[in-house]
Structures are given as structure tokens and as C-alpha cells.
Amino acid sequence: MTKIGAIPFQKLDTERFIEACAPGARLALTEEAKKRVRAGEAAVKKLLAEGKIIYGVNTGIGDFCTTVLPKDKLLQLQKNIILSHACGSAPYLEEPIARGALFLLINERSKGYSGITEKLAETLLTFFNGGITPLLPVTGSLGASGDLIPLAHLGLALMGKGKVYRRGEIIPAADALRILKIRPYVLQPKEALGIINGTAVSAAQSAFAIHGAQRLSGVSNRATAAIFEILGSSTSCLAPELHKLKPHAGQIAVADFLRKNIAGSKLCDRKGGKIQDSYVIRCAPQIDGAVLDQLERGREVVETEMNSVTDNPLIFTEGGEPRAISGGNFHGQNVAFAMDLAGIALAASGKAMTKRVERLINPAFSGLSAFLSKEGGLNSGFMITHYLATALLAENTVLANTISAEASSVSAGQEDMVSMSMTSARKAYQILLNCERILAVELLSVAQAMDLAGHGKRSAVKLFSKPAQALYKKVRNVSATLEADRWLSGDIEKITGRVHNGEFSVI
Fold first, then answer.
1. Engineered SS bond to 372: which of 228, 245, 448, 466, CB 3.0-4.6 Å?
2. Which among 162, 197, 232 is the end of a domain?
3. Is 321 within a domain?
4. Rounded to an integer, what distance in angstroms lies between the CA atom of residue 464 and that of residue 477?
5. How many CA atoms lie within 13 A of 26 on its CB side?
6. Final residue of a domain: which of 176, 197, 218?
7. According to the model, what pLDDT value does residue 507 have?
8. Is residue 318 part of a domain?
9. pLDDT at res. 490
């Protein structure tokens, strides 16, 4: 069903953002937004008529900011800004993330502080509502002055140059304009910077990373609860009075979740079992709870950024005479810090998952058959899937290195400390994708271990709690019990896909 949203949204959260980026979503400017955009457009014209000097409107940009241009060069300047900045190349952002960047740009610019024309706002809406999404390069943004290179490719598309997505297919932008029945757009003063300045791409990439990471953490906690039962673990580590003495919000939330999921289990607190389990079991609330806390902090930062105005210069029309104020709202330092930390937390989460897989496949830890194989030796079982998880973990360890402290200098020292917010966001997203595959290995291992558990009493799966049985059913709807070695790549990909699209979040 087509969803119509009146923009600008004033209080976007990640859930609403993801919904607004869906293929069926449609946007429309409110009358108040139209009024504010027209006021900004008029303000730019008035300031130029009065001979005011405005950065990027009648001056060069970057270290050329002291070069004042004559009136007959202003439109050429706008075109040149897009052409000079559109120097990115493959790989490109995935279509949903690029669509998210387009949405955030439209939402922000419709607040009226960018000095763009109503025609540009409507043209951007035509792209979005027509299912046309600019092909935005992954690399090139320094997260200061905004996501310049990726967003310049949006400007190219408006001009009928470059390429775009259309319903999953990549087509020339010129063809997209013909489909939309519009002409190549001619940028007006202030509109080049109105397109390329700001953190729309960094924020969109970050929002997808945080949303996916929080969803992944929930599924991982379900797997952990099932592992408590498989291993017959002690539940004393989940006692509420214990966690009240170290009241981190995430820790308490994970302990409560695990306790509720295994309530009434006949498999936990196994007689003769260890008083204290290994850290990835006993300290699951402290480890996974800390991950939750960092992701929640990341969500708060990203949502603040999504609701901010990040262009430069900004045009103010309130309170009398219009003003153009140059500043630095395009600088993504907060996002860079938050996404570096989110990446570190996600990498740690992947490590915990991999360690828990090891508890299942090692008979010395689990009491089950080696590598969860029904005929070890002839069959290797889940021996090598653990290799896959470990390789992904190694990649995550490299990706978790921070970039936000990198103080690179560009534009002849004019832009002497960039944030690298897009790089930190992209790293976190890649770590997320790797963790989704690690979690797929864990879920397959959990289901296999549930088939092998039970200690001869009766059908093993029926001994488990209802939440564990529901998780088992989700896995088995995709992947059958491993009776003998088979090619598991397809099973892993299917589970990974379902984790990514949220199917495992609803049980």
C-alpha cells in the first residue's frame, strides 16, 4: 500500500526513517514547508540584489572562498560545483540506503534554511515518489562540508547525467528524466551547496547500521537463551538482585530477557553441572548488555543528526532582514564517534557469538557429539562453519579500528580537521553484515544442538522452553537437520537474509 508522508518530519526516529524509505512510500510538502522554502528562495535573491557576499553563491568554495564572482557566472558556478565534486566511482551504496539519503536531504531542505527554490524541492520529490534513486558512491565523503562527493552524484542525476537506480535496476539518469517526464534541472544560486552540503548520506548509512544492529542484538539474545538450555547452564547469574548492584540499562535488560525466555526450563541448572559457566554464558548480560548500551547511544546521536539542519551557509528569514550565516553544521564528528563505537560494540557481539558456537561444537564444553555431527569422522558436521565465523570475526577486528580521531586536512588547510563520519558509518555497517552471517552460523548450530540434546529422555526439542522451540522452528523452516555432511552455503545465506530483513526478530 502506498504510504503518503507530509514533510518535513520534525521528529524522525530510526523506525520511522526505515518506514519512510520503503519503496511504496510517497512524500508531499506541507503548505508551511512550501511557504518556508519560498521565503528562503526569496531571501537569497534579496541578499544578492543587495550585493551581499554569500559563500558558494557568489564566491568560490573551499580555499577559493575569497574569490568573488560576477553575476553572469553564478549559474555556471552551481553547475561547476556539481561537476567538480562528482568524482566518485564504484562501489555504490545499496539502493535502500541511497534512497534514505535522498529522503533525509528532502526532509531537511524542506525546513526552509537552505535557500533552495521550490522547484528544486519539487524535483527532488518527483525523483523520490517516482522510485528514482541516485547512484551514490560509497567512498569520497570526509564527513565535513558534508558528504560532498556522494551527494554531488545526486546533483548529476538531476542534470540528467550519471546513473540512477530504478526498482533495483541501474539505468542512465537521462532515461530516468524521460520516465519522469521532466527536463534536466538548471541549478539556481545556492542550490549546488544545497544539494552537496550536509550529512544526509552519513546519517542514512548510520541509521541503517544502528537499526540493523539493534535488531541483530535481539535475535542474538534469543540464541543465547537457547544455549543456556542446551548447555544446562546455571541461571544464578541472571538473578535480578545481582544486576541491581550494577544497574547498567543494557545489562538489566539482557538479564531480564534471558530470565524470561528460559523461565520454567527443565534443562537449565543441570545437576552436577558447573557452579559457574564460561564468560560468554555467565557474563552474557554484562557483555551483550554493554553492546546494547553503545548501540542505544548511537541511535540517540543518529536520530539527532537526522532531525538537524546541516547545510552551509544557512539562510534565516525570521525576525526582519534575511541573513546568510556560514557555520559548520555539516561536520559529522558526533556521528563519527558514535559509529566507531557502534562498530566496536558490534565486533564484540560477533566475537561473543563465535565463542558461543565454540561452546556448542566442542564436546568437552557441550557434552554433545563433536562438531554436532551424527557420525563424526565420516562427517565433519559444523566444524568448518566455525571457520567461517572466525574469518568474519577477524575481518571485523580490522574494521573495528577507529577512524574518527583521524585529523586529515584538505582544501589547502581550509578544511583542516574532517570527521570521517561516512567511513565510520560504512565500517559499522560492514561489521553488521558480517555479524549477521556469524549469527546465521550460531542459529544453525543452536538448532542442530537442540536436535542432539535431551540426554535420551525423550524428543529433545520438546524439552526446551517455548521461546527456544519457536526459534528452532524458524531455523528449521529454512534448514533441515544435518543428518550427514551437505553443502551449507545456501542454508547460511538464507538464514542471513532472514536475519537481515527482520524475519527472526518476530517469533
1. 448
2. 197
3. no
4. 18
5. 8
6. 197
7. 65
8. no
9. 97
Q: Sign of torsion, CA 69 73 77 78?
A: positive
Total structural domains in the chain? 2
What is the pLDDT at residue 398?
Answer: 96
**What's the CATH number where 424 sits?**
1.20.200.10
Q: Which residues are catalytic, by number?
A: 55
DSSP 136-159: -BSS---SSS-SHHHHHHHHHHHT
In whole angstroms, how large is the CA radius of gyration of the chain? 26
User: Residues 253, 153: one domain?
Assistant: no
- Taking only the tens place, the pLDDT of each residue in 266-307 is 888 887 677 788 999 999 999 999 999 999 999 999 999 999
Structural domain for 394, as ranges: 206-311+328-505
* pLDDT-flagged residues of the chain (< 70): 1, 272, 407, 412-417, 454-459, 507
Residues 302 and 425 in one domain: yes
136 and 274 in a single domain? The answer is: no
* Co-location of 60 and 166 in the same domain: yes
* Residue environment code for 232-262, b if the CB has 16+ CB neighbours within 10 A, otherwise e: bbbbebbeeeebeeeeeebbbbbbebbbebb
Q: In terms of C-beta density within 10 A (0-12 exposed, 13-18 middle, 19 or more buried), how is residue 487 classed?
A: exposed
Q: 3-class DSSP state for residue 14?
A: helix
What is the Cα–Cα distance from 337 to 340, expressed in whole angstroms? 5
Say if residue 179 is in the same domain as residue 217.
no
3-state secondary structure of 79: helix
Provide the pLDDT for residue 463: 86
Q: What are phi and psi of 440, to 5 degrees?
A: -60, -45
Q: Would you state the pLDDT for residue 291?
A: 97
The reply to whether omega before 313 is within 30° of 0 (cis) is: yes
Give the pLDDT of residue 437. 98
Give yes or no: residues 354 and 455 share one domain: yes
